[in-house]
Amino acid sequence: MTGTGAxxxxxxxxxxxxxxxxAAEAAVGLRQLNERSREIFKRVVETxxxxxxPVGSRNLSRALPMTLSPASVRNVMSDLESLGLIYAPHTxxxxxxxxxxxxxxxxxxxxxxxxTEAERNEIESRMVAGGRRRGVEEFLAxxxxxxxxxxxxxxxxxxxxxxxxxxQVEFVSLGQGxxxxxxxxxxxxVENRIxxxxxxxxxxxxxxxxxxxxxxxxxxxxxxxRTRIETEIEARRAQLDELTARVVTDGLATWSGDGNDRQSLxxxxxxxxxxxxxxxxxxxxxxxxxxxxxxKKDLIQLLGLAERAEGVRIFIGSENxxxxxxxxxxxxxxxxxxxxxxxxxxxxxxxxxxxxGRIIPMVDYTARLLGRLVP
Length: 375
Known about the structure:
Low-confidence stretches: 1-23
Number of domains: 3
Order of helices and strands: HHHHEEHHHEEEEHHHEHHEEEH
Strand order of the largest sheet: 7-3-10-9-8
Strand content: 15-25%
Mean pLDDT: 77
Helix content: 40-55%
Oligomer: single chain
CATH superfamily of the largest domain: GAF domain
């Protein structure tokens, strides 16, 4: 597939205003380029993606499908530079794409290929095998490791922790207004949390809360159980006194945690980010990227943007404040469960000099396959 300058196929998923601005700028930018300018611009970007090096007018004139002298190429490059699409990293050097230029290329000129049959078979065989013998989190980690290995980038996966179905709960008094809330999932995992309870709460209320929950949560996920029980209590259908109802709702809220706590973030294959380091500035960029990956709260929020939309999403450089120093790119796609409900996001993080045409379909295929196989 080849971009045409229409609405971007893989738009930036940031603030809606920023997304609209970038899409409009891409369309306007492409209309400003004639065939010759587009071809030269495209060659500059493709050379950067392949080698990471600036390209000069002489080499470009030899590679173009049309006959142009180096002087003519320099004139076109000067026009592209005035449009903010390319720049010279230092005096008398060739040209590299700016972040704006790279975004324009990805949105309008990128040719998206397809993954090879060998890559498709490797992805499917590893995912199917992993799903048979592993728990959900291990299975998702395997997906991240596999994407990391194929793309030579860091793999990332974000998923809800509460996808497991529940078996039973219990409240145990600890005295002084505290109780231990114990939650057991059907696969045997146990999670303990300390919850606040009213001072002087009788043990009978804890027992009643335990019995009430156990009669209703079996086979449900925590999110589903919380929604069902809170609705039931609000509708006054529950035969619970006020203190017991408070224990039930506070216990469910504590197990659920806040938005970030409910989600599991998996980052795999950081070592791949060191493979293409050629200079000290590259090493500094990777150091900043490692710091970005350690900023889990910010990364979770960024990945959460992709959960609220369909298809592959691409973040480039300082379009998001998380990558403003590292100059990195993130390619992600949401994945669904068997009920077509979005339950997570997976993708890769690497330098802006990614093989977008190869990695985009790889992320897309893995996300769709993961949606069919997630336990």
